[in-house]
Every structure is written in C-alpha cells, then in structure tokens.
Amino acid sequence: MSNKEKLIELISKYVGMSGKRLPDDVTAKLTQLRDAETQPLAKAVYESMFENQKMARDLDRPSCQDTGVVNFYVKAGEFFPGLGEINDILKEAVRKATIETPLRHNTVAIFDEKNDGTNVGERAPFIHWEIESNSDKLEIQSHMAGGGCSLPGRAITLMPSAGYEGIVKYVFDTMVEWGINACPPLLVGIGIAGSVENASILSKRAILRPLGSHNPNPKGAEMERLLEEGLNKLGLGPQGLSGNATVMGVHIESAARHPSTIAVGINVGCWAHRRGRIIINKDLSYEIPSHKGVTL
What we know:
The protein is an alpha+beta fold. It contains 8 helices and 9 strands. A hairpin with a 5-residue loop joins strand 8 (275-280) and strand 9 (286-287). It is globular and about 55 Å long.
C-alpha cells in the first residue's frame, strides 16, 4: 500500500470516528450541564443524549442520523510530503468514509439538485488551507456541519455606529428566531470583521476552538462571558424543550475592520458537536488531541 493509500485509509477512519464519538471537551461540558440541570424534563433529555452516545459506541454507528457536510481546516507543514495530493486524499477519504462508516448522503449539487451519494461534489468537502513554515506535520481539523446547526448561520455588515451593541442584538435576534432549530445546547461562534465573508469564516473557526478557551483580548473574553450568560437566560434547554442552559459556550474570533463597517457572522454547533483534530507526522504516525486515547 502506498503512502497516499495509507493516508486515505487513516483520514477515512478519523472522519468516521469523529461522527461516532463526541470530542472530549463537548462530553465534559454536557456532563456539567446535565449535573447542574434542575428541570425534570431537561434532565431526562440529557440522559437520552448520553444513552445515544453509548449506543453509538456500542453499535459502532454515527451518533446522529444527519452526519452533515464535512469541512476540513488544514494546517500543512511546508515539509510534509505530497502536499499537492492532499486535496484529492481528503476527497477520497470522505468518499471511503461515506461507505464504511456509513455517512448519510448529504451533498446536493446546486442548480442540478442531484445527490450522487458520495458526499463529494463541487467544493465538497470544503477545504480551508494554511501553510505552516518549518514544519513537517499535517494538522487537520474537521467539522460535520449538519442541517440543524447550519440553519442559524447568519452574517451582516453594520454601520459602525451600531457598535458592539448592534452585534449583541444581532446575535440575540438570530438565536431567538433560529436557535431552537439547531438542537441546543449550542456552541455559538461569532466572527467580527469588516466584511461578511471574513466574519463568516471567523465564526466557523470560532466553533473549532476547544470549549473553555477564551478570546485572547480581555474585552473579547468578557463579551464571550456576557453573551453566554445572557443567552442561557433564554432557557431553551436541551433540544429546545426548556431548561437552565441554552448554550455550551460562546466563542468570538475577530479581524481588523474597515473604519466604515463592522460585520458580524454567526455559526453554531449543535449539542452533538462533531468536530475533531488530528495531527499526522510525515511517517504517518498520529495523535488525536480532540479524542484522547482513541486509536484508528
């Protein structure tokens, strides 16, 4: 088996695993929310979530019927061998995982409205690239973006006079209108920039951050805390059936803006927030920091 074939096999197994097991930090946060819940119905829903995860492990099946559309965020060391083949390797890995995991067929061609059952298509899986200098490692973060958690996705460019209050209002309006569709408790990612495309990308990157991490700017970290506190007062609860919590966390990522604009993007992860991170060495040994102790 060539190194290319080995890498396809490895990434295919990683994709399948990330659809069956939640990352460690998400499991820990759900445990915390379950233990702090006081409403009987909400507690019962949390228990069903943990039973769902146990059955997914025991039956070796995805933990949600909607296995989403796979997005990859690649940080490739400049010395990792075969960089030019990575795009094709990722696509073949998704095609293979679709059959073997199995993954639900979720890629529908725009305009033609056809689904060929492979989860590979036009710009699918969507691959974001970053090259890291003086490195021979390949780091891949993945996210299975399901239909429910994609529904609250929003972005807008505001006049700067709207200020950060305008951002907060936009986030609350979006979550009140759409949050219940995304299977709470949610991880809310917010991007703040000068244009909607930058804000949107940053909001997606925000939900890749580990739970419990904070924006490096103290003002940003305080905004995260206040938004989390305020959103939890909405009381959507697990699966939107009411409860003490609406969100698992709020993460904000930012980029310098134009003086005349302030844009905000929103992306969310559902309670079954299926994202992962694998680091592959040039000899194809690996570690999976998001799922400690898991081997493929």
